[in-house]
Amino acid sequence: MTRVLVVDDEPQILRALRTSLRGAGYDVDAVETAEAALTAAALNPPDAVILDLVLPDGRGTDVCRELRSWSTVPVIVLSVVGDETEKVAALDAGADDYVTKPFGIDELLARLRAALRRGEPSGDPVIEIGELRIDLEKQAVSVDGKAVQLTPLEFGLLRALARAPGKLMTHTVLLREVWGQAYGDESHYLHVYVSQLRRKLEADPARPRYIVTVPGAGYRLVESP
Asked: Burial letters for 40-57: b for 16+ Cβ neighbours within 10 Å, e otherwise?
């Protein structure tokens, strides 16, 4: 059974998540602190982590950063509405996705399913565009021979672009392919993750060579001069 580690110090949220996740067929470990989260993840590695950003003994970003030093487990962070700085910090620390509070359980479950799917082997080939090399089966990426560490969600987005190199991938298509039908046309959400990818792949993110914007439409994965 797929095991999910839930980390949140609000008892009502912890109870609701435990009940909903178990009802959806997941095995659930629930803890309330950063220290307990890292201990649980080390002793009984989960298949995914749902992590609150504000914990009594530390920040969720610190937990995520520590996890990323030895694990590629998908991490979905929970953050308060409008706290964009915290969301970006969590993504920089290695989180794969975020859900704002208050949230609907159906949305959270959809994002969890998507995160778990992105972690599965793809069986697809290696794609090379200029100095960018993407091994879709091994989920490995390098630029000019140097390995680039991507979160599962970042890799899922890059894989969606790489499967149609040179072709326009619209905002709607990317949102549906990477996150699922539940996400609609949240193009601002997509922009955050494209920016994350560019920071990791591009020599100059402000003048991208590989992930090129088509204004008002979407993105292409190409080799620009």
From this structure: bbeeeebbbbbbbbebee
Are 114 and 7 contained in the same domain? yes
In degrees rounded to 5, what are phi and psi of residue 129?
Answer: -130, 105
Which pLDDT value is given to residue 180? 67
Which residues, 6+ apart, have CB-to-CB distance to 188 below 8 Å?
Answer: none
142 in the same domain as 97: no
State which residues form the domain around 171: 126-221
* Shared domain check, 145 and 98: no
Q: Which helix (H) or strand (E) holds 192?
A: helix 187-201
Burial of 58 (0-12, 13-18, 19+ CB in 10 A): middle
Please give the helix or strand (H or E) that residue 110 lies within, else none.
Answer: helix 105-118
Residues in the chain: 225
Q: How far apart are CA 55 and CA 187, in angstroms?
A: 30
Give 84's contacts (C-beta < 8 A, 6+ positions apart).
Answer: none
Q: What is the mean pLDDT of each run of 10 residues along the chain (225 residues)?
A: 93 93 94 94 92 92 89 88 73 87 89 80 75 87 92 87 87 80 63 92 93 91 82
Q: Hey, what are 87's tokens?
A: 């969301």
